[in-house]
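We now fix the convention by which a protein and its fold are recorded. The integers have meaning only within a learned vocabulary of local backbone shapes. A complete example follows; check for yourself that the lines match position by position.
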Amino acid sequence: MAFADGQNGWAAGNVGTIVHTTDGSTWSTQPSGVTVALNGLFALDAAHAWAVGNAGTILATTNGGASWTPNPAASP
């Protein structure tokens, strides 16, 4: 789980699950585009966050999680 501030945060889990809150209490699912377990998150601000997971998966969002894209540096 990672929060950018007291309201905006993300949590991740199995099968590529990412959930997001903008009020600190209500959560909604965001499409990650992957099916591997996601094990860690880092949030810079309400728009920018990264998720890491199994098999070298690194995802980034620049729009609050509306879309998550693989980090090109993680590609073989």
Remarks:
- The chain has one domain: 2-68.
- The chain has a mean pLDDT of 93.
